[in-house]
Amino acid sequence: MLDFDTAVIGAGPAGLMASLYLKRAGISTILIDKDAPGGQMLKTSKIENYLGFETISGSELALKMFNHVKANDIPFEFAEVSLIKKDNFGYIVVAGPKEIHVKHIIIATGRKPLKLNLKNENVIKGISYCAVCDGSFYKDKVVGVVGGGNSAFTNALYLADLCHQVYLFVRSSIKADQELVNKVHNRDNIVILTNCAVAELKEKDQKLTAVILEDGKRLDLEGLFVAIGGKPATQFIQEIELENGYIKVNENMETSVKGIYAAGDVVSKKYYQIATAISDGAIAALAIKAGK
Which of 77, 100, 118, 197 has the most other CB atoms within 10 Å of its CB? Predict the structure, then answer.
């Protein structure tokens, strides 16, 4: 006996859109996530390329999306999914202590931030992967940001409003949008260092005090924010075809396992944006509605 027709795992923009489309199509749906709804949007200080909003904070956009979902009475289960397994009716989603029986699944679990893989990175205080979450701890201090894409440049701009000095370590070439690059160049307290990698972390009493660059140069700072991309969150998935760690899907967002779909940053694709995640979620829901 089924509890719901569809379980949507992950409450980022892809999962939120999928659950909304499913519910409005009359398909019983449960939305599951171990974290607050919003995904990576919650870690974004300012969004300026999402149609309909000239500028909006990531947390505000996430709240608007989730409120839209709540207004449609879509059940939300706050739990971590540890396993998906087949049964006679469809699938069992193990979410915390519960087993939820469904016919279809949409996996929209996004990505976990990549680390620098430096010695003591996991134990030194002062290393962060979310400027919005931890930036306030470094008010009037000197910090660094590692990365060359939109996330890194957005983080640098956010931190520049709080911190005395921000070093932006671009390991290879700059990949951020030109508008963001121009804004960073116009900030007096942001220094961009290109072709520059952090090779070593220095600490005292397990607190970050400096970084050593590949050329041997030392820069004293108290906080280092890492924004070098992410790794798809697929640890609970079995028997689904992956491509470079990402879930491989067809044009209907269906995986190699019939009845299981995927959407958003967990999927193998060319562009990772809120807009493309929204599109993925809608396509997956429409494919389930159409019975594809």
Answer: 100
pLDDT tens across 228-241, in order?
999 999 999 989 99
Instruction: Pick the catalytic residue from 3, 5, 134, 177.
Output: 134
Strands 98-107 vs 4-9: parallel, antiparallel or unpaired: parallel
Q: What is the pTM of this model?
A: 0.89
Active site residue 163: no
Q: How far is CA 270 from CA 111, 241, 291, in A?
A: 15, 18, 27
Q: How far is 43 from 59, CA to CA, in rounded Å?
A: 7
Q: How far apart are CA 201 and CA 121, in angstroms?
A: 8
pLDDT in tens, 71-83: 999 999 999 999 9
Sketch out the chain's domains with CATH numbers: 4-112+230-290 (3.50.50.60), 115-226 (3.50.50.60)
